[in-house]
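Q: Fold this one first, please.
A: Sequence and structure below.
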Amino acid sequence: MDGRRFDDLARVVAHPSNRRRFIRPIFGGLVGAALLTLGIAGDTEAGRCKNDGDCPGCKTCDRKKKKCVKGCPKGKKCCGGDCVRSDLCCATAAECKACATCVDGRCQPNAAKNGQQCSGCLTYNNGACGSGDDELCAGNERCRQSTGLCCPKCRADGNCCPVGQACINPGLLSANSCCDSSANTPCGENGDGTFSECCANFNERCVGGECVPKDDCPNRRLSAAGVCCPNGPACGGVCCGDGEACCLGVCQGEDAPCCGAGGTFCPGLTRPYCAPPGQVCCGDYTCGLEEDCCEPQGNVCCAEGRCVGSACCPPDVVICGNSCCEFGEICCGNVCCTEYNCLNGTCCAAGVCGDVGASTRVCPVPGQICCLTDDANPAIGNRGYTCPNSTPVCSNKGECCPESTRYSQSCGGCCPDQGCANCTSPIPGGS
């Protein structure tokens, strides 16, 4: 208020008749506010409510009786005075996942485990096992994030060959390459996980670490010693004798049960073999009965129901569509989102306006701001309104006023001062 307006107000109040007219509504307003506050306090003590947001702590609202009662919604648990997901509530660290700890009764990512090895060459990161660490591999290897296994650096950019391909390192005078094992045979082990040559299966064979022409040896009959097997394909790198058959890479009598009781024949990508009892086929490997084969081409096995595309989702996070959510997130409308930012199946990018449980919670759209009104009267203070950026003043009833004004109940409008002159009508807020 500037000096001139203050002087004008002082002259009006100084006159006795004006002073009585000025003080009477103020005094009446104060008494009314006090009575209203007492009435509200009485309602609060009696536990009266209209919705869950009007009830404290872990209580919910019985809308028929309009009374706060004990209990959390289904799937939640009372933890520290709040209703939270049951798996996030704890009394000790032992009740939390391996990469989490108990903080103030809540399971939260254990920062102390960040960087620690959790599976293969993977390490914990913010409560999840899935960050590859090249330091856990040999000097000439990298950590393959999709499988958690180390693989030789082969390409010019220092990356590994794709899954199912071997690294060919012919020496200093030639560039490295990748050998597709489905149609070729890596030959000549260098002792570091790489090979010196890639033999074309249709016309070459690997003998003594070198690719040589197949000559007249039928396909797959060549043994590891370079001998053409007369009785059928090589078995585990050797030739089977008369009256023998290849079973699980071992030459056995033809009448021996190949797969054994409960075994399963696997066609394989590069070689046929039998899965032992209690396992299922997954490309060139096998998975346990409690696992799923996520990627046969890459021989990737995951815990049951934890496949996300061709990779595994850690057991302590939520799967949402084709993504693994971060620790503490939920699946909201097929999108990973925090529980607070999820409203009616929609993940609000800018956050939800209003408290959890308020009936007027709303997602703001571009050009809107949140009006977090907080009136003591439950009939007014549901909160969660929005106003346009052009009218950033919010009233306690979810109405929007222009800047430099405020809503006056006595005037019923948006007023620039304490009087009712020059007031404008408010516009309803979004809810």
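Q: Good. Now the second chain.
A: Here it is, same layout.
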Amino acid sequence: MKKYQFLTVFALLFVAGCSTSSEYKTQNIAAQQPVEQRYTAYNIWLLPKRQAHNFRVINYKLPNMPILPAGTAIREVSLNAQGASPGSMPSIKFITNDERVFNVAFTSGFHPGKSLKDYEAMMFSTSPFEEIIEGMSETEVTSIRSGVIKAGMSKQAVIASYGYPPEHRTPSLEDNQWMYWMSKYRTKKICFDAQELTIRCGVPSSDPDVL
């Protein structure tokens, strides 16, 4: 009788062990699933090296400064709501696939109603550049690659080229005028017609084709 009891207990322990092992393997496999590749959703202008951050979320479009292009592959993104050091600004840190590290300063007053998490979703996309520009005209694609706005561009193309307009001056993307910051003191208005295509609304630039 004791022999049968021992065999029964052993069998139950064996089954339980197999179940636990199987469950562990399943969880381990799930944990190892690759993270979906992300890309920059729009062009981002670098700030001068003397600045504490590489970019600002407001995306100052300083002349003659390098641009991190839309569609740049991103390996890792992290959010720092408290800032990197005491008294510093909240920021978004990301690392490109080629191991470049960037920090983006977030000024909440420029983006009412938006959080770091919101801008993480806005700045990065699972779509590579070929998908970002899908259905766009040759003029739109060329403009995005150059970081400019020309007449006849859709709102999607404007976002890919310039990023999102800061919410404190453009509360809704449904508006037919968007305000961008070229520097801390200089702004640029982008206007749209009834078909939501860009039209000239300000002083002509040195390049007659560029708004």
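Q: Anything worth noting on the second one?
A: Residues 38-199 form one domain.
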